[in-house]
Amino acid sequence: MIFLDAASTTPVRREVLEAMWPYLTGEFGNPSSHHTLGGAAADALAGARRSVAGILGCRPGEIVFTAGGTEADNLAVKGIALARQAADPRLSRVVISAVEHPAVEESARYLERFHGFAVDVVPVDDKGLVTPEAFRAVLRPETALASIMYANNEVGTVQPIAELATLAHGLGIPFHTDAVQAAGWLPLDTRALAVDAMSISGHKLGAPKGSGALYVRSRTRMEPLIHGGGQERGRRSGTENVAGAVGLATALTLAQARQVEERRRVAALRDTFISAVLDGVPGAILTGHPVERLPSVASFCFPGSSGESVLLELERQGVVCSSGSACAAGSDAPSPVLTALGISAEVAQTAVRFSFDSAVAEADLEVAAAAVLDAVGRVRGLGAQPSAGA
Ligand code: PLP
After folding, report:
1. Which of the listed residues 232, 257, 282 is the one where a domain comes to its end?
2. Residue 223: what are its φ and ψ, rounded to 5°?
3. I want to staple 186 with a disulfide (CB 3.0 to 4.6 A). Which of 74, 157, 182, 332 is the partner?
4. Across the chain, what does the average pLDDT equal?
């Protein structure tokens, strides 16, 4: 099997599992316990926090470990917006982009439904970019928080985060970014990115599912969502997932160490793959930005086919990929991300996303590109969909 769906998840790396092992077995203590076993767990948690903070260019106390990216997004969007509204009831608007992951979008909609917020959605251009002009146009004195993702999970477009965050700060608005897809591929220095909050998730980079973290700049007001024993400085109660935190820190450290070299290598493979597909499949469309995109994502529409049928055909040939995000998989509705880029619902149904991990091999991508040419040809030959401009 050639696994080209790394944006949905990745296997746990051996080094990560080995780093976690002691905290799942012999060193199983609760970090809040006062005996030696608890102390060892607390030390491991502190070490993991220092490692993550080192990579994010922040203080350890600014890291909150969570159970993944969805929780980190919820905590940032709801927690910061609610705290600001509580301090000043006029602060009752939130800004998100039209291509956010549901973890951000649905958090904003929750604020709208239950807490009287208005949600301002910044449109993206046809490459999936939030332009500074479009972003500036939706910021208001009443905006409590802006949340714009670093890199998109379906089309891989990378946003100009530092520029957008600086614009928000000019109006005193805190800025959160969902960096779940960017982590492991793009620089994560929160000071250089000028963000007040940033979400990451372990399972996209070789740590287990259910591990993640939120960076929150010190002195940023944030209401906790999970109340209890006051762990994580009161920002996220619940006995900490020590092994998960150690796993996340190890995976991030490994990714960081090889980031520049891997990024260049994988981006070159991605470009060769994109060219092979665009040259070989008549009418194929690359979705997202041609340059400002994740090294690890190649996403297309194949008008005149059906994304789901192409997926099945590819899987039959041993290539595993996705028709969009894993969250939207199985849904008949066209992807809101693709329609936000101005792609018609009919063409959006023909989307296929290939996403790579850092171990992707050139030979595998050659096989995959040939399989794509064949699979799209077969599906079109079967007349799976009426032609949509191919
Ligand atoms: N944000 C983005 C951009 C994602 O791609 C994902 C996962 O697909 C998430 C958030 C959710 O992260 P998790 O699966 O860790 O909850």
Report:
1. 257
2. -75, 135
3. 182
4. 95
259-309 pLDDT, tens per residue? 888 999 999 999 999 999 999 999 999 999 999 999 999 999 999 999 999
d(CA 112, CA 110): 5
Domain assignment of residue 160, yes or no: yes
Which percentage of the chain shows pLDDT scores above 70?
96
| Inside any domain, residue 385 | no
The rounded distance, in Å, linking the Cα atoms of 141 and 158 is 27
Q: Nearest residue CA, atom 4 of ligand 1?
A: 180
The number of the ligand 1 atom at minimal distance from the alpha carbon of 149 is 3
Domain count, the chain: 2
295 touches ligand 1 (CB under 6 Å):
no
Q: Which amino acid is residue 104, in one-letter code?
A: V
Number of Cβ within a 10 Å radius of residue 74: 20
Strands (E), 101-239: 118-122, 143-147, 175-178, 197-201, 212-216
CB 328 within 8 A of CB 196: no
What pLDDT, on the 0 to 100 scale, is given for residue 389?
A: 38
Cα separation of 385 and 390, whole Å? 11
- The residues pairing with 369 across neighbouring beta strands, listed in sequence order, are none
Q: Is 149 in the pocket of ligand 1 (CB under 6 A)?
A: yes
